Amino acid sequence: MPVKINARHGPLQMGLEYRLFLFAAALAGIPPLRAAYRIADICGRLIFRFNRKQKERVIQHLMHAGVAKDRGGAIGIGRRNFIHFAKLLVEIVVSPRYLKKENLSGFVTINGPEESKRLFFNPGKSRNCILICAHFGNWEMAGQAYTMLSGVPLLSVMRPFDNPRIGEYILGSRVGGMHTVCDKRGALKPLLLQMKNSHSVAFLVDQHANAKEGVLTSFFGHPARTHKAPALLHLKTGVPILLMMPRRVSDDFKFEFIISEPISFSPGGNQEEDLLKIMQRINDETEKVIRSYPEQWLWAHRRWLDINR
To answer: Among 9, 68, 126, 301, which is disulfide-ready with 150 (CB 3.0 to 4.6 Å)?
Structure first.
């Protein structure tokens, strides 16, 4: 399915960004994996030191959420956070080598309730779900890995990339086989068709939503507006919701998919209350995992209504 990609920057800036990205990607793909991870570690530390704007934003958000008790603690987590995302670039480049059905079990383990494993990761018998993920761990490979582990086709909703050429590169590693993506604009019909065919759909719901698209929730004890589309689809179709958080375990392309219990709600007569209950449950489950591994979540983006407005 074609994806509309949103270009917010001028052509010269986008061209420069793309060339720099390709250069970094090429460097990431040349050395052996462990060496590439070590180089990413160094690069992440350097970026954290010199990109003061993003560094301060991450520190501010870590303290706002109460994950770091003081600035010193926030600096420590923030540095590891920058290293994490440098390593993510390495994984985007090398994932075609490793992300294969025949050897995926050597790189990915599933950790969560046995009921969820039986329902959603039982090839040939898996049922479809509304899959919820966050900008956590390696979410870029999560969709493809899910289809291989479950045997169920997946359609992921995405926002347009700011730089279309970088977006095309990343999409090349994100989609394939049974995993496709669609723009969030006008996504309702393809999503409903996908679910009608007993396929799964996926959302990233940890970014700020506007008043029309979101519902007012709490996240790390602060007000945050969360996208309500997954809850609307659940109430309309009855398809269960599953949270899946793809945590990096070690620097050898090893991951743990942390999954939740199946999340199901029966309509209570007040749609706004139902939407709030569902999305708050998702926020609570997401927050619980992020608190355990804070260095693997994208702290730099806008999330709360009482900061960076």
So the answer is: 126
